[in-house]
Specification:
about 325 residues, alpha/beta, 434 Repressor (Amino-terminal Domain), Rossmann fold, 6-stranded parallel β-sheet, 12 helices, about 15% strand
Length: about 325
């Protein structure tokens, strides 16, 4: 069956090809009667616009790439939903990619998105270097960094006040009488992991508490790694356990809690725990967790707004936007 052409649609609706194009692209005003005639002709003829040809002509694909560290993390899914809530009404679709905290995979995905000629990229990077990201920006692809940043990179960045939030939640533990505090770190090569660990250490220092190296664990922003690290720490330090654990993201908090319960310990009676970020299904978790409450949806909305401004040439400068998360007190910390 031969493919229906725009010329046939114009003939069927008794209008010009230019008018059909205007209806399809919604870029010039057309009377409601004419618009309905064209849409009816499109429907009757089952006309399928050539998206590739249109993108070549307009120099836009109306696609935005979203590259995150972990597609299973509800935090990143909320960022994606926030982006979509802003850009979908403007005719943009999302291509969603996950790097699994692998810089090599991230580079491969960024190259793929560049080949697909996406109009912008929203990126939660796991790269320390950022050289290819810099190339993308220099060649005209808007890149909006979320959750993480690379120092010296000229890109719009939307992050949280990781240092002060980590400082405040650690200080909360200390004010509850805890001095033997374990930290489950994310990747320290990434700004988010480094800043949260620095905030944790500063809170200890300001309160005259020594950092206990055997309580510093590697969770790598990963549930399974955090589970193994906490499980091994409990087994090895059974006679000298920390009284509290600070997990530097939500997935690591989940892994830590699983390990605690598997080892026959109770929260908060035997060990207290706090998290940077909320759990996947907090309503099912008892006791209710004390945590840093992140607003990932708002971060996504802001990223979507910036992406559209960059695509439309309305913004040529770069800014760092810092969101201030709240401390939400639950029941997972006991008074020592």
């Amino acid at each position: 069956m031969d493919k229906v052409t725009i010329k046939e649609v114009a003939k069927k609706a008794n209008v010009s090809i230019a008018t059909v194009s205007r209806v399809l692209n919604n870029n010039y005003p057309v009377s409601e009667d004419v618009r309905l005639k064209v849409l009816e002709a499109i429907s009757e003829l089952n006309y399928q616009p050539n998206g590739v040809a249109r993108s070549l002509k307009s120099k836009r694909t109306h696609m935005i790439g979203i590259v995150v560290a972990d597609i299973t993390n509800p935090y990143f899914m909320q960022i994606a939903k926030g982006v979509e809530s802003v850009v979908s009404s403007k005719g943009y679709n999302l291509i969603f990619c996950s790097t699994n905290e692998n810089p090599t995979k991230e580079l491969k995905l960024l190259r793929l998105l560049n080949e697909k000629r996406v109009d912008a990229i929203v990126l939660a990077t796991c790269d320390k270097d950022g050289s290819y990201i810099k190339q993308l920006i220099e060649h005209g692809t808007p890149v909006i960094m979320v959750d993480r940043k690379i120092h010296g990179l000229n890109a719009d960045t939307i992050v949280e006040d990781n240092f002060n939030a980590a400082y405040n939640i650690t200080n909360y533990l200390i004010n509850k009488g805890h001095k033997k505090i374990s930290v489950v770190n994310g990747l320290l090569s990434i700004s988010t992991g480094k800043e949260r660990f620095e905030g944790f250490k500063k809170a200890l220092e300001d309160n005259g508490i020594l950092l206990i190296e055997k309580y510093v664990l590697k969770g790598n922003f990963n549930r399974e790694d955090a589970y193994n690290a906490v499980k091994n720490m409990i087994k090895e330090q059974r006679e000298d356990l920390p009284t509290a654990i600070f997990a530097a993201n939500n997935l690591m908090a989940e892994g830590a809690m699983i390990a605690i319960y598997e080892q026959g310990l109770r929260i908060p009676e035997d060990i207290s725990i706090v998290s940077f970020g909320d759990l996947s299904v907090p309503q099912l978790i008892k006791p209710k967790l004390t945590l840093i409450s992140q607003n990932a949806y708002v971060i996504g909305q802001k990223a979507g707004e910036i992406a559209l401004e960059k695509i439309n040439g309305e913004k040529d400068n770069y800014r760092e936007y810092v969101m201030v998360p709240d401390l939400r007190v639950g029941e997972s910390v006991k008074q020592v």
